[in-house]
Amino acid sequence: MSETPTQDYAPPSLAGASNRRDATTRMSGDLKWNKIFGAGLGTAFAILVVQQVSSAIYATEPPEKMGYFVDAPEEAAGGAEAAVLPPDWGTLLPVADLAAGEAAFARCVACHTINAGGANGIGPNLFGVVGGPVMHSAGFAYSDAMAAHKGEAPVWTYDELDRFITAPQRYVAGTKMSFAGLRDTPTRVNLIAYLRAQGSGGYAIPAPDPARQPGAAAAPAGEAPAAEGTAATGAEAAAPVEGAAGQATTQATPAAPPAATSTPTGG
Q1: Of 151, 146, 121, whose CA–CA distance to 135 is shortest?
Q2: Is 66 helix (H, G, I), strand (E, B) or coil?
């Protein structure tokens, strides 16, 4: 009986399983890169969608009115600046809103104190400043510009404070006060009324001044045509007088020789 040599072989089932594993491994490797590319594309697509949706929801439009109002003086017709009347303190201070003035002073507390005996800060203490002398706070190092201004206006009158608070750097060029100023007149009036209530109550309020009240600046311009008409009437009335004077001169001419002959006699 002959013996048949045995050969090593893998059962068909095991060989097929090995091949399937290799194919699955290759396929999963391909799917891995597909997933990476797909995730990248999905992310880019999501970003574009979010950008478009947010642009549609939060669409920005130019504002109808600017957020910060710049109170710049406007030129009147013909290039001339419109006349601005100073405040009529006698009319405005008695009815000023002290609470609004205190609120306006809130923007000053970073540099100034207002209480009696308060310390100087970046700016001087302002207790009793209204009606007081310029450079009133002892121990504060005022600027040379303020010292020069004191020689021109030694007292913080209502008008002086009003002009200075309107635009400090413009009114006293070189002052240490870096505040841009208050262009709104009612706000300044309320602020000055509040400052007066802090140690300056004895500083008198002037009587109302009709020349400072609204419409006072327009009155002379309105009366100008009437004045011109009056002047024209006077000129017309003067014309006959000039004619009469001419006639009188003509009539007086023949009388000149006797007057001339009498001159040597008088000599």
Answers
A1: 146
A2: coil
- Return the structure tokens found at 109: 């507390």
- Does residue 14 belong to any structural domain of this protein? no
Tokens, residue 132: 């007081």
For residue 184, the 8-state DSSP code is -
**Apex CA 73: angle with CA 67 and CA 74, to 5°?**
100
Residue 167 and residue 179: Cα distance in Å, rounded? Answer: 8
The number of distinct structural domains making up the chain is 1
Which residue in 104, 91, 89 sits closest to 181, CA to CA?
A: 104
Task: Tell me whether residue 171 is in a domain.
Answer: yes
Check which CATH number belongs to the domain holding 146 and give it: 1.10.760.10
Four-CA torsion 232, 234, 237, 242, nearest 10 degrees: -100
Per-residue pLDDT tens digits for 38-47: 888 889 889 9
Threshold 0.85, pTM exceeds = no
Summarised one tens digit per residue, pLDDT across range 185-213 is: 999 999 999 999 999 999 999 999 999 98
* Structural domain harbouring 91: 84-200
Instruction: Say which residues have a Cβ less than 8 Å from residue 195's Cβ, sequence separation at least 6.
Output: 101, 105, 114, 126, 129, 130, 161
CB 203 within 8 A of CB 196: yes
Residue 125 falls inside a structural domain: yes
Q: Which of 114, 260, 85, 111 has the alpha carbon at shortest distance from 189?
A: 85
- In this structure, is residue 167 part of a structural domain? yes
